[in-house]
Design brief:
Elements lengths: L1 H19 L4 H15 L9 H32 L1
Helix pairs in contact: 1-3, 2-3
Length: 81
C-alpha cells in the first residue's frame, strides 16, 4: 500500500515539476526522444514536449492503477469461490 502511495506522489511531483518548468524542457525533450525512439514513434516537436510528457505520466498512472485493480479483482474472485 505504501508503494502505491509513493508511486502516486512521485508521479504527482514529476508532473508538477514538468508542468511548472522546474525541470528544464531540454531534459524532458531528450528523455522523450529516447522513449519515442525506443518505441519507434515520432518524437514530439519542442513546443509540445511539456504536454506529451504529462500525457505519458497520466497514461502510466492509468496503466498501473488498472493493473492493480485487475489483480485485486481477480484475487478477490478466486478467494470468494
Amino acid at each position: 500500500m505504501l508503494t502505491i502511495v509513493l508511486f502516486h506522489l512521485l508521479m504527482l511531483v514529476l508532473g508538477l515539476s514538468i508542468g511548472t518548468g522546474i525541470v528544464r524542457q531540454q531534459l524532458v525533450s531528450d528523455l522523450l526522444g529516447y522513449l519515442h525512439n525506443t518505441i519507434g514513434i515520432t518524437t514530439p516537436s519542442p513546443d509540445k514536449v511539456k504536454m506529451i510528457a504529462l500525457i505519458w505520466i497520466g497514461s502510466l498512472i492509468i496503466i498501473v492503477d488498472g493493473c492493480i485493480f485487475l489483480l485485486v479483482s481477480i484475487t478477490r474472485l478466486s478467494n470468494s469461490g
